[in-house]
Amino acid sequence: MAAFCARPLRFLLLVYSSESVAMAAVRAASRRLRNLLTRRLTARTNLGLSLNFHPMSSFAQDEASKAAPEEAPGHSYESLRVTSAQKHILHVQLNRPEKRNAMNKAFWSEMVVCFNKIAEDSDCRAVVISGAGKMFTSGIDFVDMASGLLQPAGGDVARISWHLHSLLSRYQETFSVIEKCPKPVIGAIHGGCIGAGVDLITACDIRYCTQDASFQVKEVDLGLAADVGTLQRLPRVIGNQSLVNELAFTARKMMADEALESGLVSRVFPDKEVMLDAAFALAAEISSKSPVAVQSTKINLLYSRDHSVTDSLNFMKSWNMSMLQTEDVVKSLQALMEKKELKTITFSKL
C-alpha cells in the first residue's frame, strides 16, 4: 500500500518539477525579450526619436502649451495682467486683447496702483511691459472714456476747466508713475503702438520692438494735442526735434526700422516671442546687479535729464555720500577680484 501511494507521489512531484522548469524557462524568455525591447527602444530614443509611454491627448497638449505664469500676489486688475516672469522680474501686460488693448477707465487708475506697488516691492528689480494679443495698444478707448472727456462736470467754464485740469493730472500720472518707479522698466512693443501707447513707452527706460511694430502720435487726427507725455518726453528720447514735429503734426506712422535709426528703440526683433525672450534676458542681466547701484543709476539719470550738469553733479554727491556705504560695493569688488559673475552673488533686497 505504501509503495502504491509512493508512486503517484513521485509522479506528481515529477510533473510539478517539470512544470516549474517550464515556468522558469518562460520567465527567463520573457525577461530576455523585455531586455531586448528596452535596448532597442532606448537606442531609438538616443537617435532622436521621441518615446512616451504615457502620451498626452492633443487637448491636454494644447492646454499645457497655453499654460501661463500665475498672477503675481497683490496684482489683480481688470485691464492688466501681472506675472512673475523670473526671479526678481515682473511682467506687466496690457490685457484687453479683444479691444486691441485700448485704454479704458480702469486702465488709467490701475497703472498707478500697479507701479506704486512695484516701486515698493523689495523683491522686484526689473519690469517688462508688453501687450497681449495682436498689438501693443490702440490707444485711448474713446467709447469708454467719451463721457468724462467730452462731457466734463461743471456749471461754467471755470469749473469745467478746473475739473479737466484735475482729470488730466491723473491721466498724466498714469505714465509718469512708470518713470518714477525706481526699478528699470523695459517696453516690449509688437504691432501697433498708437496714441497714448507712445506716451506710455516714452516713460519706459528701454524699448525693444518687433519688425512689424509701428508708432503713431495719433492725437492731431482726433482734434487734440497729445497731453499725457509724448510731447514732453519724445524729443528727449530721440533727440531730433524736426522728426518729433513731423510725427506730431502729421500723425504718420513710424515703422520699426525708422524707430531703431532714430533711437526710439534700441533693438528690433523678427517676432514677439524672440523679442520677449530678449527682454527677459536683459531684465535678468539687470536684476543680477546690485539693486542699490541700478536704482541709484536710474534716479540720477532722470535727475540729470531735467537739470543742469552742475546741479546734477551736486545731486550725485549728496546721493552717493550715503549710497557708497552699501555692502554691495564690497560684494561687487570681491566678485570682480575673484573673477566671479555677479549673478552668483546674493544682494540683499532693497
Automatic annotation (TrEMBL):
Gene3D superfamilies: 2-enoyl-CoA Hydratase, Chain A, domain 1, Lyase 2-enoyl-coa Hydratase, Chain A, domain 2. The keyword Lipid biosynthesis does not apply. One of its GO terms (cellular component) is peroxisome. It comes from the Eukaryota. Pathway: Lipid metabolism; fatty acid beta-oxidation. One of its GO terms (biological process) is fatty acid metabolic process. Keywords: Acetylation, Fatty acid metabolism, Isomerase, Lipid metabolism, Peroxisome, Signal. Coiled coil: none annotated. Pfam families: ECH_1. It catalyses: (3E,5Z,8Z,11Z,14Z)-eicosapentaenoyl-CoA = (2E,4E,8Z,11Z,14Z)-eicosapentaenoyl-CoA; (3E,5Z)-octadienoyl-CoA = (2E,4E)-octadienoyl-CoA. Isomerization of 3-trans,5-cis-dienoyl-CoA to 2-trans,4-trans-dienoyl-CoA. Homohexamer. NCBIfam families: PRK06142.1. This is Delta(3,5)-Delta(2,4)-dienoyl-CoA isomerase, mitochondrial.
